[in-house]
Amino acid sequence: MQPTSHAFKANVREALVDTTLQRALDNMRTGFPAKRLLAISRLPEFDALRDQGRAIKNHTLENLDFYLETFERNVSRAGGHVHWARTPEEARQIVLDICRSVDAKTVTKGKSMISEEIELNEFLEHQGLVPVETDLGEYIIQLRHEAPSHIIAPAIHLVKEQVEEAFRASHTDLPPDRPLSEPRELTDEARAVLRRRFHEADVGITGANFLIAETGSTVIVTNEGNGDLTQTLPKVHLVLASLEKVVPTLEDATTILRLLARSATGQEFSSYTTFSTGPRRPGDLDGPEQFHVVLLDNGRSGMLGTEFQDMLRCIRCSACINHCPVYSSVGGHAYGWVYPGPMGSVLTPSLIGVEEAGNLPNASTFCGKCESVCPMRIPLPKMMRHWREREFERNLSPAPFRWGLKLWAYFAKRPKLYRLGANLAARTLGRMGRDSGRFSRLPLAGGWTGGRDLPAPQGKSFMEQWQARTEQARRREAA
Amino acid sequence: MAPSKPRVALFVTCLVDLFRPTVGFAAVKLLEDAGCIVEVPPTQTCCGQPAYNSGDRADTKAIARAVIDAFEDYDYVVAPSGSCAGMIHEHYARLFEDEPAMFQRAQHLGNRTHELVSFLVDVRGMTAVHAHYDGVATYHDSCSGLRELGVKQQPRALLKSVEGLSLKELPGAEICCGFGGTFCIKYPDISNRMVGDKTADVVATGADTLLAGDMGCLMNMAGKLSRDGQPIAVRHVAEVLADMAHDAPPIASNQPASGHQDRH
After folding, report:
1. For an interface test with B, which of A307, A366, A470 has the most B Cβ atoms less than 10 Å from its Cβ?
2. Per CATH, domain B127-247 is 3.40.50.2300
3. What is the ipTM, given to two decimal places?
4. Which pLDDT score, from 0 to 100, does residue B255 have?
5. Where in chain B are the domains?
6. Tag placement on chain A: N or C end, fewer CB within 10 Å?
7. Of the candidates A391, A392, A454, which has its C-beta nearest B223's C-beta?
């Protein structure tokens, strides 16, 4: 998708006045955190598992080349193929070549953030193919020609009335008077429509939550079963994954799986966790004839060995997004690219550049909630601060803000001058605000006073009063 | 308690110094009640967070050096703010990872730096205060104190001993109020939305007083409540614990102090 992260502020303004979006976000705000809390309260070893998960991923990232090569070897051994893609362009071309090789027309897709990253649907349509999203949320936003606003709940920004509208507009062959006001009716309709698509598809594309080096398996975690139909019914199963999804062993994958659903939806396990190893073997009742894995780099290898390496531990559970008060105020589209919320605020500048996405790591209060819920213990605020440092070094932050900061720092480094200034400011503002105790408007503080009052200083600064007090005491002692 | 009185340096914090000196005096009183000798190093300005969180590492380090110079000779450093204490406790050492000598000094200072209320309870073993406040209060957990320093039960424990005060828990007490230092200036729209959610929760508790341990959050929430015409008294928790709530009107108000009962 075309990034609009540079327009974050404008996106935010729009999001904040969008009453339907705000209604949708209200629904989400309370749900996920409560469910996660309940799920982890039932697992006393949750924190120990987090440490294990972190250690597994750190070890893998330190030896990423080895595990990726092992993975490739074992995929081949099982009869599949691994394709390496450095850029979105390369990845798209590989997918297209595979589709063309089986003369594919319809392509079903399980949910894959990588396919959003490389804008696959648009590309395939352009090439005359018909890509069909089969995850309910993804299907809905595909009908609406939108991007996902959340990494595990792509249509969380919508309310059910908007889903009904999208279905009525697209499913025109169905009776116009059918009831579609209840979630159940909407789900049933999507299921009926998609079922046909599953059978038509020549290629099924899924993402992968994990790639397992020791077996050459890929793993998907879903709650709808659509992923399984996508990967078992067509002739070709094509897995789109980024490099960092690899883990050494089955045991490692299952360790991290215990963290994933609990952190994401508050489930102990997702409804479906599916392991795929190679194409259908002789004697198998079903399964694809071909099994391909496209491994996308797209900037990730460049994060290795930098202060952003820890970000590659991310397992896309969305716990940070679900708990972020900034995300729940503005929703995912405001972030302007595939990955929203705190994880996106670190990852997006890494993948599309801090020039485009510099707003994102700045739009955080550093409240620390994201890091506290991250199952992989990724220090998200620390890495957002690294981005701010890079921006600052390259003079990318807004000029008035930089000047203000420089002026403040000039005083903060000179205690005597600072004292004079602070004492004067406290007295002056204190006098000005004495009548009401607050300012409802103040020059240069419009950002603050636009939505709230600014409390007035009490008068003399603490340091001034304290100095007077200690001098008085000294004089008394001397007398 | 230790046989000799510890020398405690008060880190006043720039917002307390400028906006709310009564919090500084409340902190002094509480520390003295806890058996400490309190000094206020005169060269202090700010902990450096605005520069740190804006990516200005050079200025942050210069300011951190000055704070280390001014404060390192005391037994403890105490700040009436989880955010500033957290900055010194958690982040100063990180700034000097490449300078072993400074790193050691930063770590040494950080280890002895505490947020006021957690210092009183965890270090000085205080279990009760002599204070009176008539009212129903609710408490907001400021993010830095909560997540960097584990300040959660300590203020509640001491508030329990305040005569006349009942504490009503705030749903979502651990959700950020939207202040975030420079965040509230850089992204006022989001900040305003977040503080609106927060104050709506505060109003819904029915409490007449809102307490917290950080001036930034308090000014943000008080400003919003004031703009919305909500008659809720907003105070730093130290003012109530030090029995000094009657000395000054609540934040963002010139109304006489609430919760005060003249006992003379």
Report:
1. A366
2. no
3. 0.95
4. 76
5. 7-122, 127-247
6. C
7. A454
